[in-house]
Amino acid sequence: MPAYTMPGLMTGQNTNDIVKKLVELERRPIKRWETENEYAKMQIQIWGEVKNLTTNLQTKTRALVSFTAPFATKSVSSSVEGVITGEASRAAKSGNRALEIIEMASKHQLSGVEIDTDIRLPEGSFTIYSGKSKETVTFPGGGLSEFSNAIKNMAGSLMEASIIKIDKDSSIITLTSVKTGKKNQLQFSDPNGILKLAGLVGENKTQAEDTKQILSLDGTKAKAWDLPKFKKSELETDKLTQTEEGIFLKPDTAYTIPIAVTEIKERAFFEVEVVGEAPAVMELGMSFEKEGSVRNKFLPITKTESKYVFQAGDLATDKNLTGIILSNAATTPIQIKSVTLVTPEAPGTAEPLKVLQEAKDLKIKIDGVEITRETNEGIADVLEGISFNVHKVTEEPVTLKIHVDHAKGSALIKEWVDAYNELMKFSKEITSVEKNGKISDKKESDDSKATDISRDFWDNKSKSGLLAGENSILRLIASLKTTANSYYPATKENGFRVLTDIGISTGAVGSNWEKIQDGLLQIDQEKLISVLSENPDGVRDLFASDPNNDAKMEEGVGIKLLEILKPYNQYASGIVTSKVKLLEESVAGNNKKIKEHESHLISFESKLKQRFLYMEQGVGKNKSVGNYLQNNMFRGNGGE
To answer: Which residues lie below 8 Å from residue 396, measured CB to CB, with a gap of 6+?
Structure first.
């Protein structure tokens, strides 16, 4: 009787090799799950890039449709380079203006006389005035270096001090105002003689008294002021009355009273003296001439003791005062005894010894009209919507040019087109299909051990886009093309209705049809610059317009594009977020299966080894029995 043997043993195979092969066959589902996870992770990366590109296009589109989009930004320049620079808003009127720069604004520069470099200045204080500001320097005493540092620390906002060494024994101190303009010239008060010892000023004089002028008010010439607010001003029973004691104002009345033309000096103010009861705050005003017309300033002022103080010089320095506006918003009558114009003397009581450069105002002529300003920079109150800086005096009139600045709008549109093309190219790449590739999504069931996962499937997937056939991306591509090629309502005359009107197209006439079908946008830079220069508002309206005049942008390339992109980038329920979440859940599920199957393989391998051990033991016994029987049968036959 032949002995029982296993096939593996008959062929000389090791039992451990057989167990390994059986375990490897059992491991096939893990390979499939790992391959699926690898594919899912690549898809997650792709969806992440889709989100980045859609977000970038969304950002560039919002920049185009926002109210601050600089399509109509205008720039300022001069026919002679370097004379003037600046910016202009949408409100500025394009055109050319005759411009002359007569004199530049300058800082006040002073110089002292030579003094001993090792001089020790005494302790004390001095005051520096510049424009409406003043700073008092408390000096503890010391040398020139300590003196310069004290000015820097306590009056650095008004002036700068420098020390120049003439030789080893002598030095000079120079002072320069921080601000330009006549009003900002430096003035000094030197009661302790510190500035004199420093060689900067002469003797300190006694402060001169203020000049006071009582204004002559003729009540018979008074006219009602602001009737909608002060309704009783025209009633006969409540009209203003005037006696030797002063002017009486009834409640809820206000009047403007003309006066002889009087110049308002710097730091000048009105003192309004009131008799008897009066409110803590009263509204007071003035009329003055400015640039050929009469202006009014009317504001609340606070009472100090029995007087109200109105800072006229802060509002109308060097202007001609033509009238006073009195009012009474209280519930009881007010008696105004007098209105006095007070003009303080110049605050400086010590004259500088040497003036290196006078403080000067900027003097310019625009269209023949002379204008003065304190500064050369940031001049925004001369021409509507324009802020400019002046850089040098002109020898002859030049041309001030105000024109549309197409550079910013052109750059915005180029960035938008680039973002659009990047998204379009990437979307087409990830959804492309290999025409000769045979793609099948059919998978073997997880418990099938008959065959391994088809490598053809993954090979063909690598030849095609990883999101081939993904409807959401295909829909995005189609929507982008439709939006870029659609017509939109023109809300303004000579408006634009399609992107090709402003030089943006999928290809010029006669271009390759396949390239046109790709849907990538191209810019005709010359045409775009032309339309941005001639009709910037029309370009902006093509991207975002309000056809219903309801203050809501509802039409345009940009508005429609934002509507398309919104579902892809919503944080919680967006298309990309949902796709990534499903893929991550799939990876997590596969990882769980892999972990469970790994545990199963350990047990499976152990059982196989145990079974093969039993089989080997059985085979061994069978061999022994077979050998015994053969030996006994042989002896028996020999004995016969």
So the answer is: 100
